[in-house]
Amino acid sequence: MRRPIIAGNWKMNKSAAEAVDFVRDIRRDLNAITLADSVVCPPFIALQSVSEVLQATRIGVGAQNMHFAEAGAYTGEISTSMLKPYCQYVILGHSERRAYFAETNEDVNKKVKVALQSGLTPIVCVGESLEQNKAGLTHSFVSEQVQAALAGLSADDVNGCIIAYEPIWAIGTGLSASVEEAGRIIGLTVRGALSTAFGEDTAQTVRVQYGGSANPENIGDYMRHPDIDGALVGGASLKRDFVEMVRIAAEVKGIPA
Ligand code: PGA
Questions:
Q1: Residue range of the domain that includes 152
Q2: Which atom of ligand 1 is nearest to the CA of 214?
Q3: How far apart are the CA of 176 and the centre of ligand 1, in A?
Q4: Catalytic-role residue among 96, 103, 128, 166
Q5: For this structure, is 166 an active site residue?
């Protein structure tokens, strides 16, 4: 059984002080939800303080990116061993990283391998552009992204990953994908690619999130789809809406830890 998981991707929002105030505010209510996993992903500068506030709670902490090297001359970058004391998760290959920072499938693949080796759970993001969607290329493009991101991994490794299907046209636009469309791409394309590369057991084990304008109003419908296990949430994760979304996910298909 796949336990629901809602992760908040704060992107470049909230100072360290604002981050601490926010998690102090939501900590008690979020921690009271036992039937779904929740993860907050603040900017690097707030990881340490947020992880301190969330110590001894069931709320996970994730980074939004990392470098694949362990250390060295990579100005502005951060490695897994630097993240490890404060995080259990790391978002990798977000479409904004791919679009604005030229991350390739190969970079994402290297990062996924290093994250797993270090014991961080990767949240691997895939998703097509509006042009690709309109041209009918979603299936082939997303399948390729999934297989490239996970190339060279064992089925066991892949079982330890989370995948977020985030159509780029739905991110931050208010234009969320329909449940039918998101469910079809997650079920047929993402799980299909996992099944081809790693076997059907893995395809049914890996938790797959939807992302793109998810909010308290639509999360229940996504969660009711049998192939959707949660959401990667941007805008709505910056507010108390996030707690409501985790509560709804737990209510729709909660599973004890
Ligand atoms: P959004 O962002 O919820 O603001 O659309 C989702 C994401 O980019 O992870």
A1: 5-253
A2: 3
A3: 10
A4: 166
A5: yes
Q: How far is the CA of 211 from the centre of ligand 1 (A)?
A: 6
Residue 99, ligand 1, Cβ within 6 A: no
| Total domains, the chain | 1
The predicted model scores a pTM of: 0.98
CATH number of the domain that residue 166 is part of: 3.20.20.70
CB atoms within 10 A of CB 44: 16
Q: DSSP 3-state assignment of 122?
A: strand
Q: How far is the CA of 118 from the centre of ligand 1 (A)?
A: 26
The Cα 151–Cα 27 span in angstroms is 37
Q: Which residues pair with 126 in a beta bridge?
A: 165
Q: What is the DSSP letter of 195?
A: H
What is the C-alpha to C-alpha distance for residues 104 and 66, in angstroms, rounded to an integer? Answer: 14
Reported as a single tens digit per residue, the pLDDT across 107-155 is 999 999 999 999 999 999 999 999 999 999 999 999 999 999 999 999 9
